[in-house]
Amino acid sequence: MKTTLLTLALFCAVPAAAAGLRAGAAAVDVTPQEWPIRVIGNFGLTLANSAHDPLHARAIVLEDSGVRIAIVLVDSCFIKREEMDRAKDLAAKRTNIPVNRILMAATHTHSAPPSRAKKGDGIEERYVERLVTQTAEAVVQANGRLQPAKIGWAVRPVPEELFNRRWFMREGGILPNPFGETGDLARMNPPAGSDSLIHPAGGTDPGFSIVSIQTVGGKPLALLGNYSLHYIGGVPGPEVSADYFGEFSKQVASRLAPGDPAFVAMLTNGTSGDVNNIDFIHPRPRAQPFERITAVAGKLAGHAVEQSRSMEYHATAPIQMVERELRVRYRRPTPEQLRFARAALEEKDESKLPRNAKTYAGWAIALNDGPEFADLKLQALRIGQLGIAAIPCEVFTEIGITLKELSPFRPTFTIELANGHYGYLPTPRHFKLGGYETWLGTNNLEPEASVKITRTILDLFEQIEK
Fold this sequence. Notes:
With 466 residues, this protein is of the alpha+beta class. It has helices spanning 2-13, 81-95, 122-143, 243-256, 291-308, 335-346, 357-369, 397-406, 428-433, 449-465, and strands at residues 21-29, 37-38, 47-48, 50-51, 56-64, 67-74, 102-106, 147-157, 163-164, 166-169, 186-188, 197-200, 207-215, 220-227, 239-240, 264-269, 275-276, 319-329, 373-383, 386-391, 394-395, 412-416, 424-425. Helix content is 30%, strand content 27%. It has an 8-stranded mixed beta sheet with strand order 7-6-5-1-8-13-14-16. The protein has a 4-stranded mixed beta sheet with strand order 18-19-20-22, covered by helices on one side. Strands 11-10-12 form a 3-stranded antiparallel beta sheet, with no helix packed on it. The longest helix is centred in the N-terminal third of the chain and has 22 residues, at 122-143.
């Protein structure tokens, strides 16, 4: 009897996990501290000597009914899985948030240092270490700021800034690829206004998703946006920049929570592998540096702030998050491509080679000598009736639209470049059309990878719907 009473007393003394949402947010600086440093995102060598605007790792931690997750966004072109896993491990040890409940993604600014250091480059090695530890620190700080909160979400159409960048062209409008092959049927970023343009090879996703978090008293705490637009660019070579992702964060903060350093806004990249901000039919005058970045970020910030003030908020939002590894094959060069690659690396006169032939030759040989399989970390999560998918590639828009249409959650959006980076992810249809995003080196996974990934994400959604 004593044992029974003691057991009952202990059971009653342990409180059940409190229902109701708690949230915390933080932004931590990841700007380089040493110069010059290499900037990736373009072919050729670019060294930055300063930062036009700071780079950040931003984190939002959410908890409801004992389930705690973190969503982390880093101002970087991409981050490989190994570096993200290191940051997750550090964060998990300091917060007790399980690594499989941390979603970590890069924005895809093309004006940031590499997230993997070139061997022997001390500046890059120290930067990558700073990037990893500061990204973990963002999770730690957000976790330490948990407080009762409420959350809302909405979607607004913003189609006018989105243009599919892959085009069908008239004869003569498509150049040989870096292996000297001439079978492409679509061209990435053709000359704007060209007479050779026929029509785009794909569409765009106009949905701008907005997730707003407030304290229970209605004070803005954090805002997460998701828009399917590649980086914008227009950053002078010698500077690093967070591109329009960072400008969005700054403008939302200045409009929604002026003077509040604890407020955090972030803009995640949706499915933008074939979409950019160039109007190929109606070419615009050449913009000044940062002009388009400021304009597009300002437009999105205006929509986000307006929507956050009118949406419905929920004081509780059941959270579920699942993760699964999917094994897919890496591509291998054909015998002809391999021979071409080896010859290209030996050629001293680059004028005799297709554009960027040496770069692609190196990538082709690395794929030939590398592992047979890639283990992709895929995630799906729900916050109330909001669904979010996470894919570690530069995902084509129609994949994101398919996931939105077939997901059991409304709304749903995808965060790309999450939990790693494995190159572009075209659909099998686009793979057959060829073009930059399908070339060996920029595209590293088997042609059916997008089909397998889509099926897995939908299966994960079904799992957390129950």
